[in-house]
Amino acid sequence: MNPTHLPYPGAITDVAGIEVGHHSDTRRPTGCSVVLARHGAVGGVDVRGAAPGTRETDLLHPGNLVPHVHAVLLAGGSAWGLDAAGGVMRWLEENDIGLDTGHGLVPIVPAAVVFDLGVGDGRIRPDAQSGYHACGAASRSAPAQGNVGAGSGALVGKLLGMARAMKGGVGTASVSAGGVTVGALVVCNAVGDVLEPATGRVIAGARTRDGKTLQNTRDALLAGHMPQHLLAGNNTTIGVIATDAVLTKAQAQRLAQVAHDGLARSINPVHTMLDGDTLFALGTGTSGKEADMLLLATLAAEATARAVVNAVQAAQGLTVGEQHWPSAAELASS
Fold first, then answer.
1. pTM (predicted TM-score)
2. pLDDT at 230
C-alpha cells in the first residue's frame, strides 16, 4: 500500500537525530532494520513477551554505566539474526561513531529479533553483512513499510495454525504535541490478531478454515477453541520508540514500558508465552525540551499502536511454495 494511503501519518524519522535503513534478503523473505542515532541517544528497553531474543539490553538499565546507544537493530532470523548487530557495529566504527574507550570506539547496538525461520529456507537469515547494508541504506526519509527489512517474513494471527495466519510486516508512525515528537518503528510478527485501536475491530489475524474471512482469535478462545501447538518464540513484536525530548535513562526505560500499552491496544492476545515482545526507547534530546512524562507516555503508546496498524496495512500477500498468506488489504478486497 502506498504510504500516503496508510491509516496513520508520520514516521520515526520525524524525530530529529533518527535515521532508518532496511536490508531485505532477496533469497527468501527475511531481513533487518536499523534505527541509527549518529550523535547518540539515551536508551531504555522493556521486554514483556516470555520468549525474547535480544542483545545488549542489560546495559540500558538505569543503574548501569553506558549513557548512550548509537543504533538499535531489529532483525528476522530468530537468534541467528543477532549476528547482524556485528555489521552495524562495523559500519558505525568506520564512520567514527561509538563510545570512546580511550582504546578505540565501541559502538553500542542493542538488538531484538523475530522468528521467521518457517517462511522459506530457514538456513538463510540476516548476518553481519545484512546489518552493514542496512546502515548504508539509512536516511532521514520516511522508511518503507510492509514486506521490507525485519518485516519481510513477519506473519500475524498464528494461534489457530500457521496455515490460517496472515502477512505481518514493519510499520512506522509519529505524533507530536507540546513541542515534542514521538515516533515508532514496529515489526509485527504477533501470534495474536491486529486490531484497529479506536474500535477494537480485527483487521488482520487468524482466518476461518476456508481462509476467506477473519476468525477473531479472542472470541474463538473464549468459545473454547484450543490454540494450535506452536513453538514458543515463533512470534514476537519488536520495535523502537524515539523522541526528541530530553530524557534520563530512567525516563527512557519508563517510556519503553508504557509504549507496550500501544501493543495492548492493537494486538490481542499480546505478551504471551509464545511471543518475545520487546520495545526500545531512544531520547535524542534534539528539541531541548524536558517534556512531561505523562504527555510522552500518551504519545508513545499512540505512536506504537498506529505503527502496528500501518505494518499490516502496508503489507503485501506472501506465497512460499504452496502456502499463501494474504495481506489485510487483499483479504478486505476479496
1. 0.96
2. 66
Sign of torsion, CA 110 309 305 21? positive
Q: Convert the pLDDT of each residue in 92-104 to its tens digit.
A: 999 999 999 999 9
Three cell numbers written together for 328: 489485510
Torsion, CA 206, CA 211, CA 213, CA 219, rounded to 10:
-40
* DSSP code, position 123: T
Domain residue ranges in the chain? 3-333
Distance from the Cα of residue 224 to its chain's centroid: 31
- H helices within the chain, ranges in order? 84-94, 128-136, 217-222, 249-266, 293-314, 328-333
For residue 227, give the C-alpha cell: 490454540
pLDDT for 2: 47
Cell numbers at 263, concatenated? 501493543
Architecture of domain 3-333: 4-Layer Sandwich (3.60)
